[in-house]
Design goal:
The protein is an alpha/beta fold. The protein is 38% helix and 17% strand. The strands form four sheets. It has a seven-stranded mixed beta sheet, with helices on both faces. Strands 13, 14, 15, 17 and 18 form a five-stranded antiparallel beta sheet that branches. A four-stranded mixed beta sheet has the order 1-2-3-16. Helix 11 (320-341) packs parallel to helix 13 (407-421). Bound molecules: 4'-deoxy-4'-aminopyridoxal-5'-phosphate. Residues 104-106, 109, 132-135, 204, 208-209, 237, 239-240, 266 line the site of 4'-deoxy-4'-aminopyridoxal-5'-phosphate (PMP).
């Protein structure tokens, strides 16, 4: 391992970080488990990309089979890409009827911005404090998680940031909090309109890097409608939350009864194979077709399409969405019980297998405890359970495992978490 670390330090950028104080050398994965080079088995509570499980045999077989036959690009007629687009669209509202295929979440959000800017003829973008939408220049510019963080910068003038709508710990709390966050959004819509522009609103219905935070219902529902009423467009970033992870619904925005104009997908879509998409309305897609070709060397290629289709099939065949709902509820209930016993847990939130545990100091007005949160995940790693920390104050322990995660795994996780928390 030292050899890899040494080489990595020398020839990979130092801005690439490693998880945990004692880095892991993982050599194999199976379902919801990872194995290090000594054969030690870890319960994976965090890799949401390997959605249907690590090294799923049906995915490797499908990719291998198609790779042996053909892998080209979308300039040829191909049955797989249209089959996949059709199956994907069946999971989405009717008005979202056109798929652009890409290769990473960042690529999807970058393209979504291009589509929205071309349609609204405006750049003015409303974003949520704490949000992350990708690593390209265009996306770092609209990601407060990055531009407000270490190495950050002043956001461009076209970015309108509103406070993270956390009704328990955010800028506004209490009864009127939700209304106040909405007011902040509507004030920004008004400023954009005043300039003669139209708003573009990008959001995750359940914030990932923002700390596994479900957006308040009325805030998002009303905010979404307000943006659309003002001639603007709503982009739902489902890169972390999509494909049944949240249990009750296949997509995060469905919890809010809204129909965004553009939805961006990624991560779990290919179970680790680089595959992502932007889905939008026919009108927005047509408007983008101004003569300039949309070509993407890899996006929508036959192997990607076969892999994507196989992921959809496995989610349905193995009942993974309902597993996320049932096991997620079970896990959340146990975490809430642990919260009752521990003064270190300030909040437990999320849906399905997308949960967050806030680590804060009950005796000190629930002040965030990022160092303790970090200590907890390192102790959990020593107990062979993988979790991570995120959120505005870096005090939210994130749980977002591969969806085959079961009740026994939940018992193991919470049992060990209790031991770790009470060892402080
Ligand atoms: N949007 C969200 C919500 C994300 O969490 C991420 C990645 N963490 C991205 C976009 C960017 O995706 P990628 O890393 O595949 O470019």
């Amino acid at each position: 391992m030292k050899g890899i670390l040494k080489k990595r330090k020398k020839i990979l950028p130092s801005s690439l970080t490693l998880a945990y104080k004692r880095p892991l050398h993982i050599v194999r994965g199976n379902c919801q488990f990872l194995f290090d080079k000594n054969g030690r088995k870890y319960l994976d509570g965090i890799n949401n990309i390997q959605h249907v499980g690590h090294s799923h045999p049906k995915i490797s077989a499908a990719a291998y089979d198609q790779m042996q036959k053909l892998n080209t690009n979308t300039r040829y007629l191909d049955q797989h890409v249209v089959n996949y687009a059709e199956n994907l669209l069946k999971t989405l509202p009717k008005k979202l009827s056109v798929c652009f295929f890409t290769n990473s979440g960042s690529e999807s959000n970058d393209l979504a911005l291009r589509l929205a800017r071309a349609y609204t003829k405006s750049c003015d973008t409303i974003v949520l404090e704490g949000a992350y939408h990708g690593h390209t220049e265009s996306l770092i510019n609209i990601s407060p998680y990055k531009y407000n963080g270490p190495g950050g910068f002043a956001s461009p003038k076209y970015v309108y940031e509103i406070p993270i709508p956390d009704i328990k710990k955010g800028k506004y709390v209490g009864e009127d909090a939700e209304k106040k966050y909405f007011k902040s959004l509507s004030a920004n819509v008004e400023s954009i309109r005043f300039k003669g522009q139209k708003p573009i609103f990008i959001f995750e219905s359940f914030m990932g890097c923002g700390g596994q935070l479900p957006l308040p219902k009325e805030f998002l529902t009303k905010g979404h409608d307000l943006v659309q009423k003002n001639g603007g467009l709503c982009i739902a970033d489902e890169i972390q939350t999509g494909f049944g992870r949240l249990g009750k619904h296949f997509w995060g925005f469905e919890f809010f009864n809204i129909e965004p104009d553009i939805v961006t997908l990624g991560k779990s879509m290919g179970n680790g194979f680089p595959l992502s998409a932007v889905v939008t309305t026919e009108k927005i897609a047509k408007n983008f077709d101004n003569g300039m070709e949309y070509f993407n060397s890899f996006g929508g290629n036959p192997v990607s399409s076969v892999v994507g289709n196989t992921v959809l099939k496995i989610i349905s065949e193995e009942g993974l969405q309902s597993n996320a709902e049932i096991v997620g509820q079970y896990l959340k209930k146990m975490l809430l019980e642990l919260k009752q016993k521990s003064s270190l847990i300030g909040d437990v939130r999320g849906e399905g297998l997308f949960l967050g545990i806030e680590i804060s100091d009950f005796e000190n007005n629930q002040a965030p405890l990022p160092a303790i949160a970090n200590k907890i995940i390192n102790e959990m790693r020593a107990k062979c359970i993988l979790l991570s920390v995120d959120g505005l104050k870096k005090n939210i322990i994130k749980i977002k495992p591969p969806l085959p995660f079961n009740k026994e795994n939940a018992d193991f996780l919470v049992g060990n978490l209790e031991k770790v928390i009470f060892s402080f």
